[in-house]
From TrEMBL:
PANTHER family: (RAPE) HYPOTHETICAL PROTEIN, CYSTATIN/MONELLIN SUPERFAMILY PROTEIN. This is Uncharacterized protein. It comes from Eutrema salsugineum. The lineage of its organism: Eukaryota, Viridiplantae, Streptophyta, Embryophyta, Tracheophyta.
Amino acid sequence: MSFSGYDVGYPKPDLFGRIGLHCYNLKKGTNFLFLGVHRHRYIQTLFLRQVEFEAEDPIRSCTHRFDMHGYYAGKYEDTFTLGTSCSMVPPAPEEEGDVDDSLKGDMDDSFKGDLPDRLPQDWLTASTNKLQYYEMEESEMEEDDKEMLRLYAHLALNSECHGYGFPKPIELGKVIVQTRQVVESEKKMVLKAGNAIFYISFKNRSGNVLNGIIRKTKKRNKLFSMKFVFLF
């Protein structure tokens, strides 16, 4: 993927808005629902896309405007890295703080460096620095979790296909998450981990089985590193 003076390779405004709202919900502990993009612009010299979108608060039955900035944070070989920052316009006084104070810390060292090319063959027994692999069954996922995983899969697909070439992911397959060790009774919280690598297999409307590797790292502005792979 290259940036040669054109808005190519970036997620489209709708996808940018959805990932921005997803990060906002994680950060604030809210559950806003994406409605649509109001306007957007691309600043070529900064590789920055600004997206203004509308979202619904299902609890209060009202809508709010959000401003999201997505920036190109790096491209190395086949890995695309995207940074995000999203805020309500104007900000809601009761939501100025962060639910998760650990967002203010440094990135977990275990999630720095190159993104893996594939799932390790010994993932069932592999364990390093208290990192564990968890295979998530469909019965362990809420519908919101599934939507999040489809969103991540779409990001990985976009990193390879520039938003074209394949229909959106619609059916999840195998989902394996590498993150810090959790107790078994809290396994469902694995999908909410701030620092994690997601190995997601999925199908599109054409029936193609595709795979994506997405790393989510928890900083003040979330970073997503992603790649599309043919085989795990």
